[in-house]
Amino acid sequence: MNKPIAIIAGEPNSISSEIIFKSWKLRKKYIHKNFFVIGSFELLNLQKKKLKYQIKIKKINKNYKINRLKYNELNVYDVKYNQKKAFEKISNKSNKYIFECFDFALKLLKEKKIIGFVNCPVFKESLFGYKQKGVTEFLSNKVGKKINEVMLIYNKNLSVSPITTHIPLGQVNKKINRKKIVKNVLIINKFYKKIIKKRPNFAVLGFNPHNYSGSKKYTEEKIIASAVKILKKLKIKIKGPISTDSSFAMYKKYKFNVIIGMYHDQVLTPFKTLFNFDAVNITLGLPFVRTSPDHGVGDNIVGKNIANPKSLIESIKFFNNIK
């Protein structure tokens, strides 16, 4: 039997349990690999009753043989968390619990009991404080791959990747450098060829409007152009720097598979406009595959049973590519 996938329940007071329940009910239609949840058994049962889902949830522990998971039960490796109500306000109360869930997933990976994991959304400001870190950076630090991480937002038609991730906009130009652009593109290229079985065609965006800063000094565009030149010599299919304002309008014409941006919202905003929930957040540069839904905790719709599970389903389905 194939190794299963672990799903980290994420922020307990979010839409995570709802999209887990919805994904599990649709598993026979969309999902080929078995999965289990790492989270609070008691809280998931409370939330199941609140959301009125008729689902059988089974508690498993560290001695349970994961390769014997039953497909007709939602299996949950229980991580204790004390909460009386199904949903409360988000706070740092859940931080220890969330980190324990991640630690157990990493332990299972080390023991080669799972093929990878999906983490449901977390509230970054509460979990990581004001360091502007995200799960991408957190995991790379945990496994000793610091500065090697690459965020890829994947869709089979077009993927995007920001060179800088969760940092304030005013710091972006200080973090753009030729070495990082080259490294990120090479990691994504290797991933596409190994997992997606495709040689990708890249577009690299400029930083300034129309790739022009109004200065004759050494600009960001010169750094980007020099990185593209190096990558072309390495036989990478790539164009750039390309003006951002027209890039997403012409990706089909030029058959781009991946658009590389210089900062988070430069690529994420147009990408989500095009594909909405049909996307998977993948962390590359790690010794395992980690995916997550490409959206947040949905604190404005928690408990309303209207959350869309599409991105979580796609995050789980992605593992069908992993042999």
Describe this structure in words.
By secondary structure, this protein is an alpha/beta fold. It has two domains: 1-148 and 286-323, Isopropylmalate Dehydrogenase (3-Layer(aba) Sandwich), CATH 3.40.718; 150-284, Isopropylmalate Dehydrogenase. It has twelve helices and twelve strands. The strands form two sheets. An eight-stranded mixed sheet has the order 3-4-2-1-5-12-11-6, with helices on both faces.
Class computed from helices, strands and strand pairing? alpha/beta
| Residue fraction in strands | 15-25%
> How many structural domains are formed by the residues?
2
Strand order of the largest sheet: 3-4-2-1-5-12-11-6
- Total number of helices: 12
General form: elongated
Give the % helix.
25-40%
Keywords, please?
single chain, 323 residues, alpha/beta, Isopropylmalate Dehydrogenase, 2 domains, eight-stranded mixed sheet, four-stranded parallel sheet, 12 helices
Fold blueprint:
Elements: E1 5-8, H1 16-25, H2 27-30, E2 35-39, H3 41-51, E3 57-60, E4 74-78, H4 95-110, E5 116-119, H5 124-128, H6 135-142, E6 150-154, E7 159-162, H7 172-175, H8 178-196, E8 201-205, H9 220-233, E9 237-242, H10 244-247, E10 258-261, H11 264-275, E11 280-284, E12 289-293, H12 310-317
Parallel strand pairs: 1-2, 1-5, 2-4, 3-4, 5-12, 7-10, 8-9, 8-10
Antiparallel strand pairs: 6-11, 11-12
Helix pairs in contact: 8-9
Describe the structure in brief.
36% of the residues lie in helices and 17% in strands. It is of the alpha/beta class and 323 residues long. The strands form two sheets. The protein has an eight-stranded mixed beta sheet, sandwiched between helices.
